[in-house]
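We modelled the chain as a single entity of 129 amino acids. Its sequence is:
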Amino acid sequence: MQQSNDVLGLYAALFSGVYSIFWIVVAILSIIAMWKIFEKAGEEGWKALIPFYNYYVLFDIAWGNGLVFLLMFVPCVNFVVMILNYLKLAKAFGKDVGFGIGLIFLAPIFMMILGFGDARYIGPNGEPR
């Protein structure tokens, strides 16, 4: 009985370690993708490294006004605002609603596609600044 508990503990530790490494890699790739998106939009890439400020810049790229970011601090409203932000971000890079839906559900993957792909920044709401 003791041996089976030891094996379960080993499996749990192994799973936990692999799971943690997976999410660290996803976080690093997301930061790199955001860096590339910022550079495409004419912002400095290092701004992707600063918490909260990176979302201010992302909202500025998508909406043309970074202060909309403050709505992210309002409970329940933040959910809707982030969905709208992803849709506007897709439009700002000339992508359609389908790409925006991809950003909503698979943000890290679609941010990498946006950052490393051939998408070009048009401007907030798909209109040049």
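As a brief sanity check on the tokenised model: The mean pLDDT is 91. Residues 2-40 form the longest helix (39 residues).
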